[in-house]
């Protein structure tokens, strides 16, 4: 674990840089944030947003891992990749600009596949966030993180759609609670609000449990109507990547659209979910990674990581979905 | 990523984005994120304007800026940094104020879309009017801490930014500040006023001396004792604080004695004030000794968060006065200093003064860190919220380009999911308010003021510019055609110090006001009143005020108790915008909304209670009501 300086004191330089956020979440939260070591796997558009938000916030260290080479698409979604870096490794190509965001954070990058990440490697981190990855990769990594007590996050943006999942295992946090207090004399009563800090505890479940839902069960059968259709987009895309070992490709749009609809039909039938739950139109808007969606999902995800490592405020347990049609960001609680 | 990669968007949208000319107003927290999203999405024709330069406290979120850019123009550095994300984009930057006359209606007409990434209401009001005048869709945004909001304004289709009255900033009664402070904020406000009295632009409303005309002390001993010294307004007549201090060469010891001893003695002589209050304790320079204890123990806190001893306050008081005196003397004759939270001596001065005064009145002392938040009205901003808001702005922009105006929404970012599991809550855009004094067909507004006291200059500066947000107004008395105020420099200077009554302006007189830059005509009806708190009051809807006054009067009759009406205070739209984690605004979450509405109906509240509640909501959520 790489630490710099005296861990319990925040220098005056840091105080000046982080002034606004210390006013918002307090010095203790900032200290815990500064003690955290984050691994971000996947230097895609969503990964770039998460990386930006965490490096600006002032984590202790952040490592970027990706095995891919830079494509043209990367240079228009991962804004850390300079436009002349095609064929370089995307994680390494991002490094310089990420470090420039905040010299106080120890930023490193490495060309690695998810499957190459061993236990020993993982154990140096307090947070792991994987952007992209197959259902199996996410599940395996999540389970390993559980063994080491590492906070785990997984997310992805598909075109105009995005989601993330979080597993904080057994998480304790403090939360501000506002209580009304009456002050002043009886004839000019003024009620003011007093803020109290309350300790809370919340348990999470792993991705593999959360994502496997039996929609024929009584519990989930009745919940189906209120469940966001975005979940089923995620199911379809996981199935697509399982079958084809890749994401839907904008340059093969026609064939991939047909394949996605075929997968949708068989998958929803298999899950006993009516076809009408997910409109076929979704295939029109799931190609590439649209930047504003990365910004929205990466913003909420980044804030969740900040909340989790600083032990402040109630976490979102356990899924967040963003859909472009109405601009809603929905929090779902699956698998319990 | 978007238009550069074939197959992500359809061709229509690609062409609309390519040919879209967008104006980004503000290159701060939201602006930086917005520029990044725009160039990555494929917007290639962007102009950005910002007056500001880069400060170190921006760097934790305004990610287009780095340490070496501190002091440089935000719009210029933002342009350079954003271009690296997409070299194909064209960005024009202006280091300038958007309110400047160079940016008239024809400037706005060049754009397809205007996106606001602003942090103040004055500029938002102005851009709102310019976009209405140019008939260009405007995407408005705001963030505060964990909360954010994005909305769309289109002339004739949606509410404009000024359709609903915004909560006014909380002010404190003069007597509380000058005579009977009871909270830290009262001492901080007093200290800022003192700064202006000593070094800044003096304002009669910011007197810091004891107020002998305190209604609690009518005609009592204190006033009699010093009657010879006070003028007709009740202020103790001591030339001016500035001249007094200047004649003593800004000697910190003498200023200290005057403020914290003599003035406090005077307050004590107003004995009625202290019958139910803890009386203040006058303080002399030598009343306390040096002590070192305060700074050693709290090592794990940052410097500004460590409490100051009284001796330390005195030391800082003395040093900051010396520094500020030097700065003032370095200026041209007649120039003055401007209080700035980021100027160390200004902050030191206010921290020391407010803590010494707090001690005298038995009020809790505050650290320099906390005083800075309160004195500087700091609304903490963070990267994540700004990123989310900027993402939502572009998504609304894409909807407009797809000609799906009917699908545009106001979207709120909440701190927690609402009962409908939503963290981001879309709400249907409201229709324009037909009585809006900005966007309606024939804008009209009523203003309560005292025609026997208000000067033409005050009408221009405080009412038309300050209150009604005009930039360079012309005002003509309706009927007589008298030109009261002209935007031509010098033309009506002779009127400046005259009282409105001198122009036969009485209750009901109408002024035809015109702002050429904003292409805005407004008919102002004057409502004469001798008792207006804070010089004047803008009454959005004249008829409604009358009705409310009548209702309040009837209520008063019924209850036999004095109550004041709050014009516009209980208006639905007003309450809705200051709402953060429930749904009463949201038309599409109809069940929750109905539940809320029921709840509100079933709790008849006396107007006094609802008024306090309102103020609290407002001060707390002022922020998200962009
Ligand atoms: Zn309006």
From TrEMBL, chain A:
This is SUMO-activating enzyme subunit 1. The gene is sae1. Belongs to the ubiquitin-activating E1 family. PANTHER family: SUMO-ACTIVATING ENZYME SUBUNIT 1 (PTHR10953:SF162), UBIQUITIN-ACTIVATING ENZYME E1 (PTHR10953). GO terms for molecular function: SUMO activating enzyme activity. GO terms for cellular component: cytoplasm; SUMO activating enzyme complex. One of its GO terms (biological process) is protein sumoylation. It comes from Armadillidium nasatum. SUPFAM superfamilies: Activating enzymes of the ubiquitin-like proteins. InterPro entries: ThiF/MoeB/HesA (IPR045886), ThiF_NAD_FAD-bd (IPR000594), Ubiquitin-activating_enz (IPR035985). It holds the Pfam family ThiF. Residues 18-322 form the THIF-type NAD/FAD binding fold domain.
Automatic annotation (TrEMBL), chain B:
Residues 549-560 have a biased composition (Basic and acidic residues). ATP binds at residues 26-31, 50, 58-61, 74, 97-98, 119-124. It is found in: Nucleus. One of its GO terms (cellular component) is SUMO activating enzyme complex. It comes from the Eukaryota. Pathway: Protein modification; protein sumoylation. Residues 318-372 form the Ubiquitin-activating enzyme SCCH domain. The keyword Kinase does not apply. GO terms for biological process: protein sumoylation. Belongs to the ubiquitin-activating E1 family. This is SUMO-activating enzyme subunit.
């Amino acid at each position: 674990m790489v630490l710099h300086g005296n861990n319990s004191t925040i220098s005056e330089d840091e105080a000046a840089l982080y002034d606004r956020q210390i006013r918002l979440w307090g010095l203790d939260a900032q200290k815990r944030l500064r003690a955290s070591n984050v691994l971000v796997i996947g230097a895609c558009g969503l990964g770039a947003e998460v990386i930006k938000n965490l490096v600006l916030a002032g984590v202790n260290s952040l490592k970027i891992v990706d095995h891919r080479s830079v494509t043209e698409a990367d240079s228009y979604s991962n804004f850390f990749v300079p436009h002349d870096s095609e064929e370089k490794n995307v994680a390494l190509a991002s490094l310089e600009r990420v470090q420039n965001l905040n010299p106080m954070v120890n930023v490193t990058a490495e060309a690695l596949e998810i499957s190459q990440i061993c236990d020993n490697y993982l154990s140096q981190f307090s947070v792991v966030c994987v952007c992209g990855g197959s259902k199996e990769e996410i599940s395996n990594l999540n389970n390993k993180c559980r063994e080491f007590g590492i906070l785990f996050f997984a997310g992805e943006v598909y075109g105009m759609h995005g989601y993330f999942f979080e597993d904080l295992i057994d998480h304790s946090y403090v939360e501000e609670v506002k209580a009304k207090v009456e002050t002043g004399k009886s004839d000019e009563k003024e009620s003011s609000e007093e803020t109290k800090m309350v300790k809370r505890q919340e348990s999470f479940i792993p991705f593999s449990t959360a994502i496997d839902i039996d929609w024929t069960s009584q519990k989930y059968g009745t919940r189906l109507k209120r469940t966001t259709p975005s979940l089923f987009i995620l199911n379809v895309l996981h199935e697509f990547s399982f079958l084809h070992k890749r994401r839907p490709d904008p340059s093969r749009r026609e064939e991939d659209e047909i394949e996605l609809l075929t997968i949708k039909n068989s998958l929803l039938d298999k899950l006993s979910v009516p076809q009408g739950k997910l409109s076929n139109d979704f295939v029109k808007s799931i190609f590439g990674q649209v930047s504003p969606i990365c910004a929205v999902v990466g913003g909420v995800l980044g804030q969740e990581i900040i909340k989790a490592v600083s032990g402040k405020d109630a976490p979102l347990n356990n899924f967040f979905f963003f859909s472009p049609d109405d601009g809603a960001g929905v929090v779902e609680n699956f698998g319990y | 990523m978007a238009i550069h990669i074939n197959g992500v968007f359809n061709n229509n949208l690609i062409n609309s984005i390519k040919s879209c000319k967008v104006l980004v107003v503000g290159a701060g927290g939201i602006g930086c994120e917005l520029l990044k999203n725009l160039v990555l999405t494929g917007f290639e024709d962007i102009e950005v304007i910002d007056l500001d330069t880069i400060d170190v406290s921006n760097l934790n979120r305004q990610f287009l800026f780095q340490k070496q850019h501190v002091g440089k123009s935000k719009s210029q550095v933002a342009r350079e940094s954003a271009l690296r994300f997409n070299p194909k984009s064209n960005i024009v930057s202006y280091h300038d104020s958007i309110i400047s006359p160079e940016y008239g209606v024809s400037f706005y007409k060049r754009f397809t879309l205007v996106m606001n990434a602003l942090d103040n209401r004055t500029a938002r009001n102005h851009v709102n009017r310019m976009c209405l005048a140019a008939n260009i869709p405007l995407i408005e945004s705001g963030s505060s801490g964990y909360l954010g909001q994005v909305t769309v304004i289109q002339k004739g289709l949606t509410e404009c930014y000024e359709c609903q009255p915004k909560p006014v900033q909380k002010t404190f009664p003069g007597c509380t500040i000058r005579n009977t402070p009871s909270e830290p904020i009262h001492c901080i406000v007093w200290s800022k006023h003192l700064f202006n009295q000593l070094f800044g632009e003096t304002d009669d409303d910011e007197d810091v001396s004891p107020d002998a005309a305190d209604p609690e002390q009518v005609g009592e001993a204190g006033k009699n004792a010093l009657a010879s010294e006070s003028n007709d307004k009740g202020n103790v007549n001591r030339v001016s604080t500035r001249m007094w201090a200047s004649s003593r060469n800004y000697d910190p010891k003498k200023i200290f004695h005057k403020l914290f001893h003599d003035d406090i003695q005077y307050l004590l002589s107003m004995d009625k004030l202290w019958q139910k209050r803890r009386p203040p304790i006058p303080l002399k320079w030598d009343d306390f000794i040096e002590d070192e204890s305060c700074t050693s123990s709290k090592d794990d806190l940052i410097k500004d968060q460590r409490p100051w001893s009284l001796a330390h306050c005195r030391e800082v008081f003395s040093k900051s006065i010396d520094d500020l005196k030097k700065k003032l003397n370095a200026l041209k004759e007649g120039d003055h200093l401007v209080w700035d939270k980021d100027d160390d001596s200004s902050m030191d001065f206010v921290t020391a003064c407010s803590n010494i005064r707090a001690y005298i009145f038995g009020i809790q002392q505050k650290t320099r860190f906390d005083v800075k938040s309160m004195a500087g009205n700091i609304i903490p901003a963070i990267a994540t919220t700004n990123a989310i808001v900027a993402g939502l702005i572009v998504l609304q922009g894409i909807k407009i380009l797809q000609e799906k105006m009917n699908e545009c929404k106001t979207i709120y970012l909440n701190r927690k999911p609402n009962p409908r599991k939503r963290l981001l809550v879309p709400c249907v855009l409201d229709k324009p308010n037909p009585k809006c004094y900005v966007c309606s067909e024939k804008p009209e507004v009523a203003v309560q003021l005292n025609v026997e006291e208000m000067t033409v200059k005050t009408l221009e500066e405080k009412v038309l510019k300050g209150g009604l947000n005009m930039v360079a107004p012309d005002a003509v008395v309706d009927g007589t055609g008298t030109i009261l105020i002209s935007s031509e420099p010098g033309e009506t200077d002779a009127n400046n110090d005259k009282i409105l009554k001198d122009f036969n302006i009485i209750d009901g007189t109408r002024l035809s006001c015109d702002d050429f830059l904003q292409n805005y005509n407004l008919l102002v009806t004057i409502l004469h009143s001798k008792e207006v708190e804070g010089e004047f009051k803008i009454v959005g809807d004249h008829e409604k005020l009358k009705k409310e006054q009548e209702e309040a009067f009837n209520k008063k009759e019924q209850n036999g108790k004095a109550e004041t009406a709050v014009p516009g205070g209980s208006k639905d739209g007003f309450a809705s915008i200051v709402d953060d984690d429930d749904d009463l605004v949201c038309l599409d979450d109809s069940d929750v909304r109905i539940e809320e509405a029921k709840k509100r109906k079933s709790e008849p509240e006396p107007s006094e209670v609802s008024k306090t509640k309102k103020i609290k909501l407002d001060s707390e959520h002022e922020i998200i009501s962009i």
